[in-house]
Each structure stands twice: as structure tokens, then as C-alpha cells.
Amino acid sequence: MDDIFKKYTCKAYLQKLSQKTFKSEKEIERTFKPFVNEEDLISIIDKLSVKVEKNDDEEEKKEKKTDPFKSIIYEEEEEQSADEYEVNQDIVCRNIDLIRDGKVILKDADLKIVQNNIYGLLGKNGIGKSTLLNAIRKKNWGIPNIKIRLVKQEHFTVEKSIIDYVAPINKEKETDSQIQRNKAAKILENFGFNDINKKISELSGGWCCRVRLAKAIFEEPDLLLLDEPTNMLDIESILYLIDVIKTMKTVLVVSHDRFFLNEISEYILELEDKKLKEWKGNYDSYVELKKINEDNLEKQYKKNSQDREHLQKYIDKFRANASRASMVQSKIKVLDKLEIIEPPKKSFFSFKFDSVETKPLLLEANNLSVSREGREILKNISFKIKDKDRIVIIGENGAGKSTFLKCLANELPCSGDVICHGRLAYYAQQHVDNLPYDMNVFDFWIKKTGNEAYSDFKKNTSKFGLNVKNEKIQELSGGQKSKLTFALINYFKPNLLLLDEPTNHLDIEMIEALSDAIKIFEGAVVAVSHDIKFIETCFTDLYECKDGNLIYFKDGLDSLLLHKFY
Prior knowledge:
The protein is of the alpha/beta class and 566 residues long. Helices cover 42% and strands 20% of the residues.
């Protein structure tokens, strides 16, 4: 396979992937398609499909030994026995409408989900993707009575241990229950749980989301619905989730994580203009096909405009000419019948950080240490941030990534010294979540900046695609709140940005705009992120926070993927 892989920058990673055991040619295609061209993909499938054929008999034997799955139902859903579910699991709904709180989400739309496929669901923030998932879970529009599970990004509390919630004991079948609990325990371990007997009420929101994910995966539904599943996961958990999803029946995922979508998606459903449009392939294929489609629409629009203009000019020129009256009337009829093609909608905005003066050395930290409840989070870390640095920090949840950024931003007491030579700005999700909901946007801007000039407010917020004034902050979407926070940061012209999970709650268009802004920002950027595509696009120096230390990956993203996958 070396002859195929050598042309690709991630050749070492591809070589490792080729050593995996695949269950089908479809899985081989899904695994390698994001990384190689079509011709090489065919060759890879040909070479690796031999392994698949050899493993078929072994897999068949394993399946016969496996105990039938026992259905575990969420508390809020009506319990059904396995034989009550329908065999036909395709979802085909025509001319459907969906309205929530007076807002039209779908109008005369078609929804098609074919079993044994993985779909990504795309759409701008606030367009109604989560509402659509809820409607599917409730089996609106005559959706077949199949086993559906929806995992939302919501905190929940029950007075049960983690393992009891995921795999309750069936006292009538204790042996089977123990087998199932062992299976659940393995899933929980892969999601980073060390103590599966801990009460769910003691968990943070992020860990609660992991419990829901583990439960849904354990239940093996006919249709799994995931709403932004990677938001609260570290990279290792995301990579595990990718592998698991590829083994499941039918999955529909809302996500802004482009790497994740590329890895899992066989089709993309796009929610736009109250319709659902299907695109074959993963996220990159969708982008390519959509660009071709938009170019074709642009050509049709230009030709239509030229034809209409040509006809109108002829009519205007010869309208008063009696000898050409019949020809003019003929042209008028042609013009009246000619379809009016609207210009294609182009959704584009950009983020833009202002030009700043910078210095060779912007920040230095010496011997930073933090302890919490007797555990060392950070151990004597020394760190320098220089002009133009693009540094990203990854690591497991709870490893100390956010703690490290807070220490650099002087928002958390620690031992050691932090000397800032530049103008530092710190962005964290809690800043977005904790905005004063009862204030209107412009009043909040004045409070934070001391600047009452509306023209300055408008100029600064427009750099981040925000068009608001008197709206209450509570009326803004998560994306709009993020834009407001970035606009405030930019107002003070920092030359060092500390960003803690900046892509959370942004849609893909906004993430790409932020990526472009970071690439041309004249200062330095240090970020904590689990978004692999964002890391690949924006950062050159990669560290892992582990066991209280920062470990440098000198080969960057390729080195990271190799380290984490194997």
C-alpha cells in the first residue's frame, strides 16, 4: 500500500488505518474517502477487501454466539417490546410542514432516511435542526414505529448510578443483565468514565451528555439521532464515537465538526429555505457539489438576465415602429413567457480582527502549578508565547487545558509567575453563557466599552457579522452571542488571543469565518480545541495537556492522529 500512500502528507496515518480490520467494503470506503482521491480509493478497496472476505466466517460465528439485545427505554419514552417495532425502517415523508412557536421550519418539504446509512444534517444556527430531530423522534408525519433514540446536549439529573442508568439490572434474567452491564461498562470506559458507580447527579453537564451517548449506543436503536454530539467531547472520545457510529444501523447527526462529518457521513441533508435537500457523500463532497450547483445557477441567472435584457431592448427600440409591430408583439409574448430566474443566494460574512502592534515576546509563564482537592492539575509548567504564534492545546476533559488558559489570563490563582508584555484577550464559553440576559445589546456595549457612539458600535459589530441594537441579549442565538463577545474583544485591540473552545455553538460558516480571521490576525493565538479541522486549518504548534504537563507534538496533526488512534 506504500506506493498509494506516499503521495499524501498523512501517509503514516493512512498506513496505520490500513492495518485495521474492516467488516465490509462500505466501511473501507467510508474510512479512506476523506483522505484519498477516487482512483486510489478503488485500489485500496480492492486490496483490503481480501481481509473482509477472510473475516466474514468468523464474524458470522460471533453473531450466532451473541445474546439478543435487550431493549432499555428512556424514562420519557413509552416502553415497547422488540416485536412491536416495524420491520420496514425506511423513513419517506412527502410534502411535510413543521412549525414551532409560529416559526416555519419546513414547508411542503420531503424527508427521506434510508436504513443502514449515516446522514449529516446541516443548516445555519437557529434554522430548526434540533426541532426537526425532535419531530422525527416523536414519529411525526407517519414515520414508521421503529426504535429511535435522540441524544441532546442537555444536562439532566436522575438519582441513579451511571451504570444503573445505562444498563439497569433485570432481576428475572440476572445472567443476561450482567453480560449487558459488562458491555455498557466497556462503552463507558471508552468515553472516559473511571467510576461507573458514581451518581449522575454528581456529574457536570458535559459528562451527563456522555452518559446519554453511552446509553444510546448501548441500546443499538434502529435510528440514532445526535444533536451536536462532539461539543462536550475530547478528541479521544470523538475518535471513539466515529468508530462506533460506523458500526450502527442508521444515524442522523447534527454537527458543526467538519472532520467528524467527513469521517461518518454517507449523505448530507441540508435544511435551507424551509426545504431539505439531499447531497450524496461526506461534508467535503457536499461543499464541492454545492459549489458546482451554485456556479450553474449563476450561469443560468446571467443567461436569463441577458435574454430578458436583449428582448426588452428590442421591444423598447421598435415599439413605435409600425412596420415591426408584429415582431414587437411576438417579442413581448416571448418575454412574458420567459421564466424569471432569481439570482442565487450567496450567504457570506467574515470575521475581522483589527490591525495591531505586536512584540517579539508577548507572554512568559514560569513554573505554573495548580492543585485542586489534593490533585495536581498543572505541574511547574514554563511557557512562552511569541509574536505570530499559533498554538493549540488538546487533551482529555479535566486534564487542565482550560485551567492553564485561565492562569495565563490571570483569571485563576496559581503558583508561579505570568508576565504579559502585550494586550491579552481571553474568550471562554462561560463568558458567552453568562452575558446579562436582561440588558439590550447596545446598552451592554456601552457598559463594557464606555463608548456611547452608535456608529462605533455598528462598525465593530459588523466586522463579526452582527446586525443588532435594541434586542435583549436573551433574544440572541448562541452564535450571535459569540459574535458579540468577539466584537467586544476586538474593540480593545489585543495582540494576544486566548481562546477556550471557540468553535462550540458556532455553525460551520461561522467557524470558517473565524478560521480565516485567525489566519490573518497580526498577533498571536493560543487556543484549546477538540475540532480537528479547525486545528488543521489554523495552528502550527500542537501540545497535549496530560498528567499536569504540556507535551509537544513536533509533527503536528498527523502525529496527533497516529498517537490517538493507536
